[in-house]
Write a structure and sequence with these properties.
elongated; three-stranded mixed sheet; 424 residues; alpha+beta; BirA Bifunctional Protein, domain 2; eight-stranded mixed sheet
Length: 424
């Protein structure tokens, strides 16, 4: 969430930043709310000061035995109560209104970010590996192997769910273990097992609420199913005062994720690309403000390392201002090559959120000069496990229902070199 004081001091920067996202903000309305709020606070404080001053006079009058004066002053204090209550009620109302306005506004793009309304303005940064030749789509391969069952999943849960069996389920689990091990042992992340259900405050802290509530699953008890482990991982430090020496903090978690995909009607209705429930390995960093740009490059490199180890072709895209997520100021997407679709598809988004989330979470750090700052937060998939499985099925397909296992994954699968072999 934005600091109203920073907005007032840098109005052009904020307005131009939001315009880059295609958003026209009536800033005068927000500033008027803030001005009214400050007037209410000032009015309340002035009355409190008067009340305290008169209370002292009442005490003095009583000491001097002047009962009539004490009674007159008491009546005057009583008259303040209604006005003070009105000021306080207005303060609460305006404070909530200002918070609602500020929390609905996205982060301001970094100066490096290309300006554009959608993905067509994204910029390719680099490309890795050689695109493999065309293959069948992953869902045809999985069904040919007899290891991917969408019909039974639909019977159990409806559309956008899947069931993996035998070697394919084993490969999915092995992929998660491989990713976690690489991020912990080689990249220095701390593994964390987190809840799948969180409260409103956690979802607000990372920016899913209030704007994107329609995209989330909510229980009858008021808990939210996590759309990504970014939510609980980032909120590990909510309402905290960290020391500068504690940073950087780097967390990794493997979880199931849950999304309604409300805006995806008609898109990717078959297969594993866009499900209501999907497995993902998530990376989160909490760092000092002056190191966050470097940390974004590091995060990207860690995510890339998984694709490189699995020898999967991919490219890196810098997202345009209109294609970035709500909380981000700069985002790189990793897009893996899928020969079954003859195109690149997103497999990871690595985002820098500056102090946007830490302000919402009320998380601060104290620097060496005892000055309190807001840390910067970053997150990225390392990787989306289901989409990695899709990429392996399509890039390593040999024909006749057989898929070879990437060399780096073989130790995690008991030395298996192929899956889907038909045996009598």
């Amino acid at each position: 969430m934005h600091d109203i004081n920073k907005i007032k001091e840098n109005q052009d920067i904020f307005l131009k930043g939001w315009e880059k996202r295609g958003l026209k903000v009536n800033l005068s309305d927000i500033l008027n709310i803030d001005e009214d709020l400050r007037s209410s606070i000032t009015g309340l404080q002035e009355l409190q000061t008067k009340r305290n001053d008169i209370s002292k006079l009442i005490g003095k009058a009583k000491q001097e035995g002047d009962a009539s004066k004490a009674e007159e002053l008491s009546r005057e204090v009583q008259g303040f109560k209604k006005t003070m209550q009105e000021f306080d009620e207005r303060r609460i109302l305006l404070s909530d209104k200002l918070k609602k306005q500020l929390s609905s506004l996205p982060n301001v793009p970094h100066e490096d970010v290309p300006v554009g309304s959608d993905e067509s303005s994204n910029i390719q940064i680099k490309e890795f590996g050689k695109k493999t030749k065309a293959s069948p789509n992953h869902y045809d391969i999985g069904e040919e192997m007899g290891l991917l069952d969408f019909n039974t999943a639909a019977k159990l849960s409806g559309s956008r769910f899947s069931i993996l069996k035998k070697d394919l389920a084993f490969m999915e689990r092995s992929l998660a273990n491989f990713m976690i091990d690489q991020h912990v042992n080689q990249n220095g992340y701390e593994e964390v097992s987190v809840p799948y259900l969180v409260k409103d405050d956690a979802m607000f802290g990372t920016g899913q609420l209030p704007k994107f509530s329609d995209d989330q699953f909510k229980t009858e008890d008021g808990f939210w199913l996590i759309p990504t482990a970014e939510v609980p991982l980032t909120n590990l430090v909510s309402n905290s005062n960290l020391s500068e020496k504690d940073l950087p903090l780097r967390y990794v978690a493997y979880t199931q994720c849950f999304r309604k995909e409300a805006g995806a009607a008609g898109k990717d209705t078959k297969g594993l690309i866009r499900l209501h429930q999907f497995p993902k390995v998530e990376l989160v960093s909490i760092v000092k403000p002056d190191s966050s740009i470097d940390e974004l490059e590091r995060l990207l490199t860690c995510a890339e390392g998984i694709l490189q180890s699995l020898d999967l072709p991919y490219r890196v895209m810098m997202l345009s201002s209109g294609d970035m997520g709500f909380s981000a100021i700069k985002t790189y997407d990793l897009e893996v090559w899928l020969p079954g679709q003859n195109l690149y598809r997103e497999i990871s988004s690595c985002s820098l959120c500056s102090d946007f989330q830490s302000r919402r979470m009320n998380t601060r750090i104290k620097d060496k000069n005892n000055k309190k700052l807001y840390p910067h937060t970053l997150n990225g998939s390392g990787l989306a496990v289901g989409r990695t499985l899709v990429a392996i099925l399509e890039n390593y397909y040999e024909g006749d229902g057989i898929v070879s296992v990437p060399l780096a994954l073989q130790p995690y699968m008991g030395g298996m070199k192929k899956i889907g072999l038909k045996t009598d």
